[in-house]
Amino acid sequence: MDNLYTGKVSQKGQLVIPAAIRKVLGLEKGAKVSFELKNDEIVVKKLPTALDWANLISELPEEKVEIDKDGNYDPKESPNFHDWMVNG
What we know:
By secondary structure, the chain is of the alpha+beta class. The protein has helices at about 20-25, 50-60, 80-85, and strands at about 35-40, 40-45. The protein has a two-stranded antiparallel ribbon. Strand 1 (about 35-40) and strand 2 (about 40-45) form a beta hairpin. It is elongated and about 65 Å long. The relative contact order is 0.09.
């Protein structure tokens, strides 16, 4: 989105986000945003919702890791876990 949009600040200090931006970002009533002040500019960002986090987590690989009483596991049986243990 390379377009420049303008909004308006109400008497109560509320900022109206243009509809085109709300649509692109999926901002609906009750959505939360953050405001950051950077060199006399305001940066507004959409905050992730619980559903956003749930969708992100659902994409993570799931792997059962069998660890014996000595703390050892089979890297071939748990390749993702092994990669995480070795590479972080």
